[in-house]
Specification:
This protein has about 350 residues and is an all-beta fold. It has strands spanning about 10, 15-20, 50, 80-85, 90-95, 105, 115, 120-125, 135, 140, 170-175, 180-185, 190-195, 195-200, 205-210, 215-220, 220-225, 230-235, 240-250, 255-260, 265-270, 275-285, 295, 305-310, 315-320, 325-335, 345-350. It has no helices and 27 strands.
Amino acid sequence: MTYWRAFRTQFASFGLLLGTSFAALTLSGCSAPEHPDFISSVADGGRRSIGPDASSNPTGDAGDSNTPEPQPAGDPSTVYLLVPLLVVYTPFALAPIDQPEVYKFGLCEFCGDAQFRGTDLLYYNNSVVGGAPLHSFVPDSTSPAPTDTSFPRSVANDPIVPTPGCENVTGFLTGPDRQLFYRCGDSDGAWWSGDVEEYHGGASFLAIGTGGVILVSEAGKYGILDLSTRKVTPVVGLPSGVTQFGIHWTADSFHIVLMDIITHDATLYEIHPDGSSVMLGTYDFSSPLGAPLWGELAADDTFVTVDYTDTSKTKVAINRLGPDGSVKEAFSSKLPHATLHLEAARLITGR
């Protein structure tokens, strides 16, 4: 879905290979190809159900009554680091951006496509060809990481989230009202919610709103999909030649950060369900290497970035940027950090 700059880092001494193969459904981002400012029409997609009594579910918040109770992994209104640890048998941790050494861990090494659903953190192993079950994260322990090499790397304590459309998912997306849409390994343009195939077409889902409103893209062109009609309304008023760095739903619109691929100016836009858009503010972003390593938009429209502070890549900083031009450093560290691969961290938040 989101368009990313190719980014792959290999830590040979620890046997840890990280990639951005999870880019297909991640909404926060690193540098990427440009996003043009319109979307072509998308063919209507029929809805079908696999359940005997399934009914239309345009908001995506029903049809999963067997889903485990939410695990309080974190606050969905807050931005977190999903960061690799130096200890290979406890590879990924969830950490606050201002205190990354205070973390929860137990995510597998290829579970980078993690998203909040309320206070629950969902993920799947995106290294498996054909997809993998969707899990709900239950922290195995908290910092510091145990030094016992026999510490389990299993996800056995992470319950499986029911996805009646298929056992293994190849992508998923959550919404502000705990909506859950997912894609199956054998699906071709199909998105499911519970046991209902809600959409089948050429559009990729970017962000979920309320009332069946979804921000989508097709061939780099933005649009608003109304699930009740299966129609896509083109988004107008956005610039071309930009990279997407984060989206969230407000009470009645989507907010999105777009960065110019040449000047690296970062701007906050509001996109309405009717396809209109308006600029809300600009961020005082600067980087010695152009675009940040990662960026995410918080619920209060703060643009959080992870980036090098110098061209020699000897230090990483996490900054909070306001649409009014304010800048506040949340955390910084010289590299290498004692326990965290900060330069390979990504940012996640709720929607």
